[in-house]
Fold this protein.
Amino acid sequence: MAGALQVRNLEDDIIQRLRRRAARHGRSVEAEHREILRQALFAEIDPSFEALAAEMRALTANREQTPSEVLMREGRQER
C-alpha cells in the first residue's frame, strides 16, 4: 500500500541541497526524498523483544511495582 507524505517548514538550505542531490542522482526531488527515507529506515535495525523488554525494565527500575494478582483482585472487587 502506497501512501503520501507531506513535509512542511523545511529550511531553504535543505530544499536546495535536496534539489542538488536529486540532480546528481538523476532523480526528481520527490524520488530523491523517497530514497533518502528508504535508506535511513532500512539501515535501522528493529530491536528484538528482549532488547525492548530490557529497556522497559531499565526505565521502570526505580518505580514501585504492583503485582498483577493484586491488580486483578482489585478489579474483581470493583465489579
User: Anything to note?
Assistant: The chain has one domain: 12-78. DSSP finds four helices and no strands in the chain. The longest helix spans residues 29-43. The chain has a mean pLDDT of 93.
